[in-house]
Amino acid sequence: MNNFHFAKIIAGVGPTLAKETVLSKIINMVDAFRITLSQGFDDNNKKYIDTIMKLDNSKTVMLEMRGLDLRVKNVLNVKAKEGNIIAVEYSEYAQEHNKKIFIDAPFLRDLPKGNKIKFEQSGVVLKVKEITAEAINCEVVKWGEVVQFDRVLFDKYEVEIPFMTEKDKKDILWGLEYGVNMVIASMVKTKSDIMEMKNFLTSQNANKMKILAKIETEEALKNIDDIIEISDGIILCFDKISEAMKAKKIDERALIKKSKNVGKPVMVTFVGTRSAGKYKLINEAAVKRFCSLAVDGYMIDTMIREDDPLEIVTELFEMLEKHELKLEDNKLDRFYEDDSDYEVRDYIIYNAYRITRELDVRAMVSFTENGYTTWRLSSLAPMVPVIAFTKIDETYRYLNLLRWVRGYKISQSFNYENLKRIGKEMIRIMFKWNISLDDKIIIVQANESVKDERTDMINGLELYKFKNI
Questions:
Q1: Residues 142-194 pLDDT 10s
Q2: Domains in the chain and their CATH numbers?
Q3: pLDDT by residue (tens digit) across 193-220?
Q4: What helix, strand, coil percent values describe the chain, rounded to 5?
Q5: Which of 105, 113, 114, 163 is deepest in the core (most CB within 10 A)?
């Protein structure tokens, strides 16, 4: 099995996966790890990061912030039978109770009668019947078992609380201290939500940290263009926005293309199901469809159990190997504009990609600082790997999420000669020495200036035979 593939795999980290014996089995197939803060940042999160870094410190660790992510605070499951009345109360602390449901939503008493409360993982739906001095009483309209720390959604009710709470800010500070490389913004609704997070990161001298926006609400879908513009990429939760997409007549291809057209990466979430004791991550038809759309990454959006990690990740990895090279031959569109701030840069990138379509090129080598050149190349879905060098750690971690990009961190003294020499060696390793001396390689340096004085790299494209690099 080749340990390099087009799209990237992002695994959620829980107590089981963080065990070194479990993690070591899949570390080479996973490109990034996601820590979710639905229960806050605690010592276990620090242990997760330490274990990942011990095994492979090149992996990207992503911190998923709660945003307007409201949760059940029960540590015991609560059975909800259809037609029954069940009490719901506010609590910001964990509660050992299996009769009442506790939610960390301080506005509960403001809910109008008839408003529906939905529990995402459990599928349970309640309808507000009456509000008393002790609690709000709700009728169960869709039965099931409300599980601990389940996410709670309020149907057609606008929550008037800040996108980033003080707890979120505290969690980010802990994440920065413990070595998190990137932030995922959950429950994003508007451009201002991402701007609020960017401003806070800047205030903590972390302005280079990348932010991915999770698109999982109808409002986020409505504001998708603005969110794509301000974020560093998007994560599409199709299971949560499919109904809104149907109503607005938006298909998957159009939504993915919106982000790709401006050079931003697109991830998709996979929510698995368990039936008859067997866990099924995703069906092969969906993987094939996403491969044809050149999706950058696949996020396993579940806490993986002890007997599942190797099987799940291997299954997805093998499906990607099977379908990734069958990308549709999409029409090549000119993506740069004559009046763009990046006219020269985009023109170079566009032509690097065009050459790979017209000549038998084996790989591209590039140098990047903020990642722009590489993510633009990647967004065009080239059928050849991109080897990218950067001096910036945040950019290096970001490269781990871009479709068929292999990133390398380099020293501040790195120059043009290093680019060619080390790039050549990395190509040998990537292709396991299965490369001809006459194979063609493109070196890409895309800046607005003619020459970068700091690196001695000339702006433009160079086409080499491998033996002449």
A1: 999 998 888 888 877 666 667 887 878 888 898 899 889 999 998 898 999 99
A2: 8-68+162-325 (3.20.20.60), 70-154 (2.40.33.10), 343-468 (3.40.1380.20)
A3: 999 999 999 999 999 999 999 998 888 9
A4: 35, 25, 40
A5: 105
